[in-house]
Amino acid sequence: MKFRQLMVVTISLLVLFAFTACSQDTPQKVRLAEVTRSIFYAPEYVALEKGFFAEEGLDVEMTTTWGGDKTMTALLTGGADVALVGSETSIYVEAQGATDPVINFAQLTQTDGTFLVAREKVDNFTWEQLKGSTFLGQRKGGMPQMVGEFVLKKHGIDPHNDTTLIQNIDFANIPNAFASGTGDYVQLFEPTASIFENEGKGYIVASFGTESGHVPYTTFMARDSYMKENPEVIEKFTKAVYKAQIWVQEHSAKEIAEAIAPHFQDTDLSIIETVVDRYKSQGSFATDPILDEEEWNNLQDIMDEAGDLPKRIDYETLVNTDIAKKVMAK
């Protein structure tokens, strides 16, 4: 009888051990919504392709939601756990009286990612040359347009009075509009800017990222409730992001391009390398996940200058750096 009882206990313990081991080996799924697909987000794809998320026991399921409003809707309705989007969206949500705030916890890019592209080749470009031109800008209220206006005003140009400003074209259609003859200048993301230059459709004359200074341009964020319910997941996620940021800093543009190429199958590898090198050399990729207070204030100054800041939100209200600092300390 004792032998039989001992066997039952032993088998029960083995089953429990097997179940526990199995549970520990099962990756935690994280649904990630990125605002668009862009080489600008290279460290994110490095984290996926180099297995940094997997090393932390996370199964990251990434979806491209194509637009800040759609990304934030996915996050707020529970369709995504984490979002990669501009920090201005968290301010808009908070200003509307959100009961479950969206918290910025890990920064990915720290400058604007757009470039000024001229239709004709310009020697000795100066911003003054935009006066009297037709400028094809970005959607009102979005970070590209706000940064664009901030930079132009910094150089003494009122985009609404000194240029014929066009900003009623959908983000996805702006390159086609310029290619078909609309505008003398256009504000474009990569790799479109470099592709246009290669094809003779336009010429990069300036970088909005270099001109605007550091801002939390794209940040990983999550609902406050999700972060409180899943602190270990957020910490592991941030650790994987930090690993990717270090890897990007320590490797060449060519190596980075080769790593992220599976996410840009329609783009030539040489173009990817050119774009990565351009972003890396101007310091667009954040070197760590901390969003600092100076960047946060710079963001709100830019939004205010554009007339799109609903109200100022304290840094501590929507930014959590405790996780990033803990990860970096380890």
The CATH architecture term of the largest domain is 3-Layer(aba) Sandwich
The portion of residues assigned to helices is 40-55%
* Total number of beta strands: 10
> Any idea how many domains?
2
Features:
alpha/beta, D-Maltodextrin-Binding Protein, domain 2, 5-stranded mixed sheet, globular, ABC transporter substrate-binding protein, signal
Short description:
This protein is 47% helix and 16% strand. By secondary structure, it is α/β, with parallel strands linked by helices. This is ABC transporter substrate-binding protein.
Description of the molecule:
The chain has 330 residues and is of the alpha/beta class. The protein has two domains: 198 residues, Periplasmic binding protein-like II (D-Maltodextrin-Binding Protein, domain 2, 3-Layer(aba) Sandwich); 99 residues, 3-Layer(aba) Sandwich (D-Maltodextrin-Binding Protein, domain 2), CATH 3.40.190.10. The protein is built from 16 helices and ten strands. The strands form two sheets. Strands 2-1-3-10-4 form a five-stranded mixed beta sheet, with helices on both faces. Strands 7-6-8-5-9 form a five-stranded mixed beta sheet, sandwiched between helices. The chain is globular. It comes from Schinkia azotoformans LMG 9581. This is ABC transporter substrate-binding protein. It is found in: Periplasm. Pfam families: NMT1_2 (PF13379). One of its GO terms (cellular component) is periplasmic space.
